[in-house]
């Protein structure tokens, strides 16, 4: 369990909160590039970190992420006209460029040039810088002097043909998603069939170690032959996971606000395009991707219809949950804990050792940021890592395994 104070510190992401300020030191995904595909296309609404924003691509192809509220009289910029290198509010015609500068105030023709300049200065709109990587628009919402170079996240660096990405909204706090992503024990149960038969494969060793990119969660099983079977998962600050599967996979839990999360799910291959077979498997929605209501980020299997749970399937022993798809199972159970899980009511068990350690590490990182200490993940190349499964002699330090199996360069050399 966690104190109310710590639970608040870890979950709240608004501006000025400890976690909100920590996350604002990193690049955050705002939308897929195709949502603002062409210059002068319609703007879209984006809610991130509790802030209502609009995203547009201007005449010159530059991306602007602006406050949704016009600074004149707070009308929504979503209805704006995207024209001639700026977004124009349709209430009284004020126009803003991608950097948030007010470039036209046509509703006061009676004031002179000097006065116009003054008004424009006063009416600059809040804007955040954007960058496109991996067919995703990312933004940085923190202090300009701390803006890091974009991290070398492997899935963002491969060609589009090597990647398949979807996203959907989870109606719960981001930390429920992240904790689910690093909860090794649930794989046997939530995503399993007949869990009784699977008890023998539950891990018994849990290690969480801080690294230069975030941390690793290593869960181990002792088959009794002098070695340990390790499953090492990487958490890249502040909300990324890389999954060890073929093709590789990744998640990003980007907070929409305190009680909603945009979960990006990605499959990618480092060196070849995804095959029709790869894509057909992912588009069957049995894996990490959820099938959405067309044109929305809402899953077809959702809370309102109890995720289309099939009680006959559940009773059959083939599916522990009776719900189809790993993504749906995760979403259902994480949402069922409430919009922000009340961690003061929990009873953690030995199998939750990693969860407890992750929380302590995150709390320490909040303190480090407040104290002005260096944060993990500021070196772009530190993100060149993959999760891994490996067998190693008992007693081998996990840091050795990280160098050997997790860091992409040294891993390639070892293979
Ligand atoms: S409210 Fe936007 S121009 Fe007046
Ligand atoms: Fe899961």
Write a structural description:
The protein folds into 2 domains: 27-146, 3-layer Sandwich (Rieske Iron-sulfur Protein); 154-414, Naphthalene 1,2-dioxygenase Alpha Subunit, Chain A, domain 1 (Alpha-Beta Complex), CATH 3.90.380.10. The strands form 4 sheets. Strands 12, 13, 14, 15, 16, 17, 18 and 19 form an 8-stranded antiparallel beta sheet that branches. The protein contains 12 helices and 19 strands. The relative contact order is 0.14. Helix 11 packs across helix 12 (408-414). A hairpin with a 5-residue loop joins strand 3 and strand 4 (63-67). The longest helix has 18 residues, at 353-370. The protein starts with a helix and ends with a helix. The chain is α+β, with helices and mostly antiparallel strands and 415 residues long. The model has no long low-confidence stretch (mean pLDDT 95). It has helices at residues 4-11, 18-23, 113-122, 154-157, 174-181, 186-189, 276-282, 311-316, 326-335, 353-370, 398-406, 408-414; strands at residues 27-32, 44-48, 51-57, 63-67, 81-82, 87-88, 95-96, 102-104, 127-128, 130-133, 136-140, 163-170, 205-210, 214-221, 227-236, 240-243, 248-257, 260-268, 388-393. The site of FE2/S2 (inorganic) cluster (FES) has 9 residues, from loops.
């Amino acid at each position: 369990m966690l104190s109310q104070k710590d639970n608040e510190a870890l979950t709240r992401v608004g501006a000025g909160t400890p976690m909100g300020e920590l996350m604002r030191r990193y690049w955050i995904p705002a939308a897929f590039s195709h949502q603002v595909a062409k210059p002068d296309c319609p703007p879209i609404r984006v809610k991130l970190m509790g802030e209502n924003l609009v995203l547009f691509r201007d005449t010159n192809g530059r991306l602007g992420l602006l406050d949704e509220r016009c600074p004149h009289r707070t009308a929504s910029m979503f209805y704006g006209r995207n024209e001639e290198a700026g977004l124009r509010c349709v209430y009284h015609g004020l126009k803003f460029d991608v950097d948030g500068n007010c470039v036209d105030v046509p509703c006061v023709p009676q004031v002179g040039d000097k006065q116009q300049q003054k008004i424009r200065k006063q009416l600059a709109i809040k804007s955040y810088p954007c960058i496109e990587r991996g067919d995703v628009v990312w933004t940085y919402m923190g202090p300009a002097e701390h803006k890091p170079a974009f991290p070398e996240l492997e899935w963002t660096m491969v060609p589009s043909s090597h990647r398949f990405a979807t996203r959907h909204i989870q109606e719960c706090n981001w930390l429920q998603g992240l904790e689910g992503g690093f909860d090794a024990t649930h794989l046997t149960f939530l995503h399993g069939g007949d869990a009784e038969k699977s008890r023998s494969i539950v891990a018994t060793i849990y290690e969480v170690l801080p690294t230069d990119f975030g941390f690793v969660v290593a869960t181990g099983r002792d088959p009794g032959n002098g070695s340990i079977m390790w499953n090492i998962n990487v958490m890249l600050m502040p909300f990324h996971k890389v999954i060890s599967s073929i093709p590789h996979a990744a998640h990003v839990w980007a907070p929409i606000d305190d009680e909603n999360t945009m979960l990006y799910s990605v499959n990618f291959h480092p060196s070849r395009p995804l095959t029709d077979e790869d894509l057909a498997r992912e588009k069957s929605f049995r894996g990490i991707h959820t099938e959405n209501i067309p044109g929305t980020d809402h899953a077809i299997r959702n809370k309102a219809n109890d995720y289309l749970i099939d009680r006959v399937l559940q009773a059959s022993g083939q599916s522990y949950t009776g719900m189809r798809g790993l993504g749906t199972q995760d979403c259902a159970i994480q949402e069922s804990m409430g919009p922000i899980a009340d961690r003061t009511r929990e009873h953690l068990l030995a199998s939750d050792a990693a969860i407890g350690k992750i929380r302590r590490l995150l709390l320490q990182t909040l303190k480090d940021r407040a104290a002005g200490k260096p944060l993990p993940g500021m070196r772009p190349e530190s993100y060149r890592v993959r999760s891994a499964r490996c067998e190693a002699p008992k007693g081998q330090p996990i840091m050795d395994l990280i160098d050997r199996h997790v860091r992409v360069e040294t891993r390639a050399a070892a293979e």
